[in-house]
């Protein structure tokens, strides 16, 4: 049954977030596209490896790409700054704050909520990120929010929707008729950590049970090497192992076989209806 399953058509967006944040994220995302089931990604425009992401994406024009709107810089040993003059969005050193919400394991003043940024600066920064992304990647097909920052304030949610409408780029979080494929495997440390083969087995089993519809699975790709091993923050210092296990699952022959046997259509956000102006 090619293109059809026992219960109808299953369309699946496999999305790897955060290109531009690290070299290992960039290369692993491209590998998951070329060798696996990933068909969509996004870029953190202020990220230190954004220009490499641009190069790789232009070399792979079939890979769907969005803008991962970003107002935070979470890693402890590598940081990025806004593209605009935005004093209310940055810490004393001029970097984005690490977190959106206060956390007990982070120092006081490390979150956007505590900083109470000016909405005018938020809007200018988000619009500039989209402008720069489109300059280098005219095929931008969707917007999404890094670390869910719009949930901080209702007026921020309305702002992001308004920007999506004005730019004509659909906002992922407002997309209708899409089911999120989550909780497929266990991410964590020590005994609770699902390694790549177990993730592949769990994903293949989930794919076998999908009913007709459109699904999105959002994860993060990465390599397990010194660069990615140096990434981390309080509560999440196993970035390389976690994200490389995602790539292992998404490129697994077991998963590829499940997709083929069930006739699952691998698509990108560009294949969905444009709801930006609705």
Classify the beta-strand content into a percent band.
5-15%
Question: Would you identify the regions where 5 or more consecutive residues have pLDDT less than 50?
Answer: 1-6
Count of DSSP helices?
Answer: 9
CATH hierarchy, class = Alpha Beta
Number of discrete domains: 1
Distance between the termini: 35 Å
Characterize the largest beta sheet: strand count, sense, and whether it forms a barrel: 7 strands, parallel
Overview of this protein structure:
The structure is a single chain. The protein is α/β, with parallel strands linked by helices and 278 residues long. It has one domain (10-271): Glycoside hydrolase/deacetylase (TIM Barrel, Alpha-Beta Barrel), CATH 3.20.20. Helices cover 36% and strands 13% of the residues. It has nine helices and seven strands, in the order βαβαβααβαβαβαααβ. The protein has helices at 23-35, 50-59, 112-115, 119-136, 154-167, 196-209, 226-229, 239-250, 253-262, and strands spanning 10-19, 40-43, 64-69, 143-145, 179-180, 213-220, 265-266. Strands 1, 2, 3, 4, 5, 6 and 7 form a seven-stranded parallel beta sheet that branches. α4 (119-136) packs parallel to α5 and α6 packs across α8 (239-250). The two termini are 35 Å apart.
Short description:
By secondary structure, the chain is an alpha/beta fold. It has helices spanning 23-35, 50-59, 112-115, 119-136, 154-167, 196-209, 226-229, 239-250, 253-262; strands spanning 10-19, 40-43, 64-69, 143-145, 179-180, 213-220, 265-266. It has one domain (10-271): Glycoside hydrolase/deacetylase (TIM Barrel), CATH 3.20.20.370.
């Amino acid at each position: 049954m090619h293109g059809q399953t026992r219960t109808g058509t299953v369309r699946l967006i496999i999305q790897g977030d955060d290109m531009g944040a690290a070299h290992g994220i960039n290369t692993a995302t491209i590998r998951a596209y070329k060798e696996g089931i990933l068909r969509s990604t996004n870029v953190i425009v202020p990220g230190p490896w954004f220009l490499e992401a641009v190069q790789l994406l232009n070399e792979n024009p079939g890979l769907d790409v969005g803008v991962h709107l970003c107002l935070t810089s979470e890693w402890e040993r590598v940081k990025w700054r806004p593209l605009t003059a935005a004093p209310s969005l940055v810490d004393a050193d001029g970097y984005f704050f690490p977190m959106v919400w206060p956390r007990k394991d982070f120092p006081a003043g490390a979150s956007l909520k505590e900083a109470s940024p000016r909405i005018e600066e938020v809007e200018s920064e988000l619009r500039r990120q989209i402008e720069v992304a489109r300059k280098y990647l005219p095929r931008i097909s969707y917007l999404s929010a890094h670390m869910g920052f719009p949930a901080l304030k209702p007026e921020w949610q309305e702002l992001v929707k308004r920007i999506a409408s004005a730019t004509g780029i659909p906002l992922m979080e407002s997309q209708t008729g899409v089911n999120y494929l989550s909780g497929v495997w266990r991410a964590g440390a020590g005994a609770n950590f699902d390694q790549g083969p177990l993730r592949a087995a769990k994903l293949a089993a989930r794919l076998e049970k999908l009913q007709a519809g459109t699904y999105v699975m959002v994860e993060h790709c990465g390599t397990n090497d010194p660069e990615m091993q140096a990434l981390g923050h309080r509560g999440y210092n196993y970035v390389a192992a976690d994200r490389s296990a995602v790539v292992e699952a998404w490129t697994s022959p077991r998963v590829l076989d499940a997709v083929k046997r069930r006739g699952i259509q691998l698509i990108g956000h560009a294949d969905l209806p444009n709801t930006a102006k609705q």
